[in-house]
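Narrative of accomplishments. A recurring question from our advisory board has been how the design workflow behaves on a single, concrete structure rather than in aggregate. To address it, we present the structure tokens for one chain from the evaluation set, followed by the sequence designed for it. No filtering or post-editing was applied between the two.
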């Protein structure tokens, strides 16, 4: 299989590239910088990387000139909700405009690969208990700039699937975590703080937000397995939730990280990290996806937390 991965140098993109290569696929990726970050340098001789700003009109066309792809997995975009809130115009450019330009390039070229558009569970907003577990029929509440731009990109996806004959499937992943996730997310933030405490470059105080909310966490390495499987059959216009179907609380995650930590530390609730409007629990109903491709998560949460903490220890120059 010849697969194009947009946003290949990102958190999910790097894990996806590794998985595709392990399965024997020929992998091409694109990113705006056209450079592998240090922790993905091992991919530079195994996957082709193309410099491409997808949001620029006609820029994506160059991706399809010399190669016919069997699958396209569209990951590129502004995925950090805080960054989207800070700059909604940039979020629109990266999440909506770039998606439309990619589809238009494929349409004009005449290729008809299997396309996977990676959306987000954020489009459901803060679902109330009667909608749990969250089905794809759950009401959409895309009032946050991240959710709004991904929802707008979903509407583009449907238009290109229905009007232009592109074979695109949408997937709405719930929280996915794991090694190499950048700071700015709960688990990676905590692991980064702990690694700094262990290295002696930060005081023994872990700043956290709300510990009682429960979220559906899936290891990124399980997530990318599902992404590859979803590109193996035509599902034009379909939409699926991707999650584990089970939840963990911040308090439970914190306890595991305390067990894994090499030094003791205290916990402090940081009001800046706490949202008063957070839903107490969000969990996916991913049964349709389980049934469709026979996928289920394989990596347990404790393993994910250990591997994430070890990644940040390496970043601090310590031993895993």
């Amino acid at each position: 299989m010849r697969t194009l991965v947009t946003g290949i140098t990102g958190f999910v993109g790097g894990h996806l590239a590794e998985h595709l290569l392990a399965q024997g696929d020929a992998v091409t990726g694109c990113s705006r910088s056209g450079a592998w970050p240090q922790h993905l340098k091992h991919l530079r001789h195994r996957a082709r990387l193309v410099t491409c700003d997808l949001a620029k009109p006609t820029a994506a066309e160059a991706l399809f000139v010399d190669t016919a792809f069997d699958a396209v997995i569209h990951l590129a975009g502004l995925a950090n909700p805080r960054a989207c809130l800070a700059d909604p115009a940039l979020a629109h450019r990266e999440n909506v405009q770039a998606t439309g330009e990619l589809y238009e390039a494929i349409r004009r070229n005449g290729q008809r690969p299997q396309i996977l558009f990676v959306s987000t569970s954020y489009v459901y907003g803060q679902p109330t208990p009667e909608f749990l577990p969250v089905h794809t029929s759950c009401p959409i509440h895309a009032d946050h700039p991240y959710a709004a731009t991904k929802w707008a990109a979903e509407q583009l996806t449907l238009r290109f699937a229905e009007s232009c004959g592109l074979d695109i499937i949408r997937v709405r992943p719930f929280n996915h975590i794991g090694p190499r996730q950048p700071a700015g997310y709960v688990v990676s933030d905590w692991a980064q703080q702990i690694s700094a405490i262990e290295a002696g470059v930060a005081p023994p105080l872990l700043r956290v937000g709300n510990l009682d909310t429960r979220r559906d966490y899936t290891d990124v390495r399980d997530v990318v397995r599902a992404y590859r499987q979803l590109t193996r059959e035509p599902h034009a216009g379909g939409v699926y939730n991707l999650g584990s179907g089970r939840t963990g609380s911040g308090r439970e995650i914190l306890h595991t990280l305390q067990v894994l930590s090499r030094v003791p530390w205290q916990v402090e609730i940081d009001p800046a990290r706490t949202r008063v409007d957070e839903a107490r629990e969000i969990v996916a109903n991913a049964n349709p996806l389980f049934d469709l491709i026979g996928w289920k998560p394989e990596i347990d949460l404790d393993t994910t937390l250990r591997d994430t903490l070890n990644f940040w220890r390496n970043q601090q120059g310590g031993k895993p």
